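[job 4471] stage=fold_predict status=RUNNING
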Amino acid sequence: MSQLAHRLELPNELLFKILAQLLAHSVHMVVVSSGDITWHMNAHHTLSAVCFSFREIMKGISSKAFQWVATEATEATPNLTHHIRRQLQWLRALAAAIRDPATPGNFSFDAHDSTAPQIVQGYSLYIAIVYLRTQAARSTPEIYQSTSGTIFGAVITLSKVLYSRIVPQEVAIILKNATKDEAELSHIGVLVVKHCALLSGFADALAAEPEPNNEVARLRRDINRIKTEQMINIIESADAEFLILFNRNDPLPCCSTIWISQLPDVYSTLERICEMFSKQPLISDECLTRLQSLVACWAPSPTPVPDSVDTGSQTVIAG
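[job 4471] inference complete, writing structure tokens
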């Protein structure tokens, strides 16, 4: 029996990859998850407690990933487990602003400077990228476009500089993919905001055109109609691209299925144009239907009004 069990043991190389990816997942969840992250905070300790081989492999992975040197132990971090937990607690606190947009961002490194582990520096930059995206969405289209350029630059820095420094590379894979997602979100957002502005111009020009009475006027009207429908098609395609990205990731921080509608001037523009063309059917029925569908899907949820009971002298909120 023991001989059979020995033959069924996984090779250390495979165990290494599995455990490294488990640790990577836990670090990422500590940063982005709004749920219970107790297991993830204790992943190193839990996995190390499984058996001797797990303990030795986890020690090797975590020591490199969190750049722990036993001779540098302090009272605050007397061992590897304490060191990892301290780093994760710091990342968890830093990432509060991307788990709850109402939380103000604070990206001062304090005691964590350039000597912090590379994976901690990498996630610090990732958190800043996500936070910058959420703040840009609350600004004007012009600021959003310029901020997206800053985000893209930060993504490039993270990709080219920090990834190569994180050892082992398996621990960086989820961070790498998450950063790629941010680059995709930036691209989609810029595309939608830009084409919403163009849509507004073409649609207004189309609606303002009097009934054409000559060939030039008819041609101008046709061009504005075609351009208007093209802009709607592009925005709809961008939404489909975003939903694919959203549905393949869990969780995608600071995002909901109607994220695009929350970008600067997007929903208000589409709602206005939808209402305008519902009264003036100047685009195809099929295109108008798709526009109406987008507006309906993106409509913000109404704020619930608490039930109240009028007692005569005062109003009492029920429940």
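[job 4471] summary: The CA atoms of residues 99 and 196 lie 28 Å apart.
[job 4471] exit 0
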